[in-house]
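[Meeting: bench + compute handoff]

Bench side (C.D.) handed over the final construct sequence. Compute side (W.E.) agreed to return the predicted structure before the next meeting so the bench team could plan truncations. Sequence as handed over:
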Amino acid sequence: MKELIATIYLLAGIYGLFFTHDNPHIIIPILFFVLSGYYFLQHYLIKQKES
């Protein structure tokens, strides 16, 4: 379930990047989405390998 949320975060961020050329000020929340989703997936995948 958590990895699904992280994937949605990543996709939302990537999707949002296509619309930043009009509104450069929204890059901050988009970067937050990408980084939090990416970080979570990395963390989750490492835990999966250990178990």
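W.E. noted at the follow-up: The chain has one domain: 2-50. C.D. will use this when planning the next construct.
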